[in-house]
């Protein structure tokens, strides 16, 4: 069924980089056999899933939408893949993204741009744009994405689906190709909040193979969906509804807050005073970490090697300059500069300090409130080509999602209506490891 739908729509939406029908059919057959011989059904039994192409999949190419990795076929599965298979979900293929998860529109993919199923002239968002578009277009039941500065939530908002970024450390990153290791998290994109809870239940949990994985008890997320928000305390940061936010988007968020108030929640305005520095701090930190993580692509160990080099040094240089796209090069240069001696204190260290202040802003608000709510993105999906030549404007799309990654806390984007026919996302942010409350509020609202 999934392949039928993909056959019908993916020529237009272009969410997939790679379909693996043979493997999916044989996995489905094995599952049927297990059930026929009396086996029990897993939590995600038989559900067709799409996987962002920076999550490694045994025997299936994992390109990160980069020319550099166009021939990279991993010999192992990421922990999240192993868990999906144990829960009996079936992966149907790999989804498009911005190269190495750097970008907010999918236009940085080295292969092709994915389109927004609501309006094919608009971007699906990014970097998990393929993951959001595939769910929105009904090509898969759910997908996995990754979120470093908003890459699950922003495309979820643009495509009218539910996208959850879990607390840093809740979901294993073993087998996620690293972009910015202190920020990256894997999470689900789904049609509704209940499905999000089921997928999170499956992929969350301690993993000794990821040294940043949290060793905590995993609550029952599904039973947290009580529909009750009576007495819940909601903080609305005034910085999140400021002048940069489209007035029609703002009106939708205010409507959503009235709905929650009507259900018995208490809504109050607060301030997160350091929000305005989040984008600057993020691009320094994320690029610095990226420049270090991407040093491994040297034409020797992974991916494509140049044919044109005469000596070793040239081989490194040319493999990298032929393999990486312009945005990736921009980040590597920025990050290398910020980390170089003499500049480290002025840029990297300063950005780390700002990160701490941003986290403290949230800590203070969470002393009195259960969740923080605002828009996921300042506008609805923009047109393909509109921002591609202007990286700074592109970076500002993430102004409302980035603080959450810097603080390491969970947040979900749920659809909250349409503006001019395009979906708007409501962002619900919670305390560290309090996904249960985030999901409960999202579920009650949707
Ligand atoms: N758009 C942001 C960036 O380009 C976020 C990316 C992400 O979360 N992977 O860095």
Automatic annotation (TrEMBL):
It catalyses: L-glutamyl-tRNA(Gln) + L-glutamine + ATP + H2O = L-glutaminyl-tRNA(Gln) + L-glutamate + ADP + phosphate + H(+). It is an enzyme of class 6 (ligase). It comes from the Bacteria. GO terms for cellular component: glutamyl-tRNA(Gln) amidotransferase complex. The active site is at 52 (charge relay system), 127 (charge relay system), 151 (acyl-ester intermediate). It holds the Pfam family Amidase. This is Glutamyl-tRNA(Gln) amidotransferase subunit A. Its EC number is 6.3.5.7. Heterotrimer of A, B and C subunits. Allows the formation of correctly charged Gln-tRNA(Gln) through the transamidation of misacylated Glu-tRNA(Gln) in organisms which lack glutaminyl-tRNA synthetase. The reaction takes place in the presence of glutamine and ATP through an activated gamma-phospho-Glu-tRNA(Gln). The keyword Acetylation does not apply. Belongs to the amidase family. GatA subfamily. One of its GO terms (biological process) is translation. PANTHER family: GLUTAMYL-TRNA(GLN) AMIDOTRANSFERASE SUBUNIT A, TRANSAMIDASE. Keywords: ATP-binding, Ligase, Nucleotide-binding, Protein biosynthesis, Transferase. The gene is gatA. Residues 1-439 form the Amidase domain. One of its GO terms (molecular function) is ATP binding.
